[in-house]
Amino acid sequence: EDGDSNKDEL
Amino acid sequence: MNIFRLAGDMTHLASVLVLLLKIHTIKSCAGVSLKTQELYVIVFATRYLDIFTSFVSIYNSLMKLIFLGSSFSIVWYMRYHKAVHRTYDREQDTFRHWFLMLPCILLALLIHEKFTFFEVMWTFSLYLEAVAILPQLVLLQRTRNIDNLTGQYIFLLGGYRGFYILNWIYRYFTEPHYVHWITWISGLVQTLLYADFFYYYFLSWKNNKKLQLPA
Q1: How many structural domains is chain B composed of?
Q2: Rounded distance between C-alpha atoms, residue B102 and residue B104, angstroms
Q3: Residue B113 falls inside a structural domain
Q4: What is the rounded distance in angstroms from the CA atom of residue B125 to the CA atom of residue B51?
Q5: Quick check: B164 and A6 CB within 8 A?
């Protein structure tokens, strides 16, 4: 996951 | 993915499975707030709008489907399944949850990372999730003691966000410029809302007696 996104989280 | 986030997701999964198990096997939703469950349907519906447009991983898509499916089916059971609906105490579950949504949507329109439809909806779902448990906690205060399964459901539901906080700390230290104040603050507020419940849950577990919330 690239650091600046947190759309990989549920 | 890190161990904290995996623990958080598994705890979250366990919470919805415990609730589904309770409702499906003993056909009872006594002590469960329909309002909170409806808010969670909205949380997942607005959180996972990008389920068909952005693919992260099989795990991510699978979990999104499970959370969407379980929250919808819990609401369906509580609303339309005769046996279950009979055990729903409508008189006590009177929290005006639509009033919770309004400030969340306004706040999402004011404070967000990007002003796009997806981002505002996603931010709205974060704010709403932080307060979605309130109708359930109010219902517990009114009905006072709660059965084990409902207690476990709330305990797990509160615990998952606690694991996510550890996940955010871990990612902050391991990933450069991973900074998401909105996510962190709403997640912290959400976990703090469970704090007093955790306290009484721990007390009842320590003294090995039924969970009683103070009046």
Answers
A1: 1
A2: 5
A3: yes
A4: 14
A5: no
Q: How far apart are CA B185 and CA B30, in angstroms?
A: 32
Distance of CA B74 to the CA centre of its chain: 13
User: What does the block give as tokens for B128?
Assistant: 């709403």
Whether B99 maps to a domain, the answer reads yes
- For B119, nearest residue in chain A (alpha carbons): A7
pLDDT in tens, B9-53: 999 999 999 999 999 999 999 999 999 999 999 999 999 999 998
The angle subtended at Cα B42 by Cα B80 and Cα B91, nearest 5°, is: 50
Out of A3, A4, A8, name the one closest to residue B56 (CB).
A8
Contact between A7 and B54 using a beta-carbon 8 Å cutoff: yes
Cα B67 from Cα B41, distance rounded (Å): 9
Compute the average pLDDT of residues A1-10: 71
**Residue in chain B lying closest to A7 (CA):** B56
Kind plus residue range of the DSSP H or E element containing B200: helix B195-206
Domain carrying residue B123: 3-206
Give percent of chain B above pLDDT 90.
Answer: 82
Strand, helix or coil at B214? Answer: coil
Which residues of B, range 67-86, sit inside 8 Å of A by Cβ? Answer: 67
What pLDDT was estimated at residue B215?
66
B91 located within any domain: yes
Q: What is the pLDDT of residue B210?
A: 79
* Most A-contacting residue of B116, B126, B175, B184 (CB-CB within 10 A), to test interface: B175
| CA contacts within 13 A on the Cβ side of B134 | 17
Whether residue B215 is contained in a domain is answered as: no
